Amino acid sequence: MKRDSRLSGVLHVLLHMAEHDGPVTSEVLARAMCTNPVVIRRIMAGLRERGYVRSEKGHRGGWRIARDLSEITLRDVYDALGRPSLFAMGNRNEAPGCLVEQAVNTALDSAFQEAEALLLARLGEVTLAALSAEFHAGLVARRGAPETEIDIENVH
Predict the structure, then answer these.
(1) List of E strands, 2-141
(2) Mean local confidence (pLDDT), 137-146
(3) Are 23 and 153 within 8 A, CB to CB?
């Protein structure tokens, strides 16, 4: 079963954008996410509607982070993506006639709801600033010195 990796990919490009001093084009972001610029524009439109990014038109245009990283949580980004399904698992039949399957559904539904609530709460606790700090700590450990600007296409 294919996993929905949009949240991971969007967080990736947002952190790259935060390191870039200026707007970043959809084409550059698409390369970083291994996707098409149209997909990036569609995703970024949802983030723009929430005020997390802004776009600049013209020759030197592109996308920029519109808020301080400490004001944007992983939950915010998840919500801006349209709240994609968190789990690949589900009930075999949503309205079973079998009493055994009804019992199974009740147990699974309860577990899924508890797990989703816990996960969403955790996503609400983690900011992009925390991810950025972790990235910078890793960068210093790897290279031995802080960088002033990171090349969006060559950080991996």
Answers:
(1) 53-56, 62-65
(2) 77
(3) no
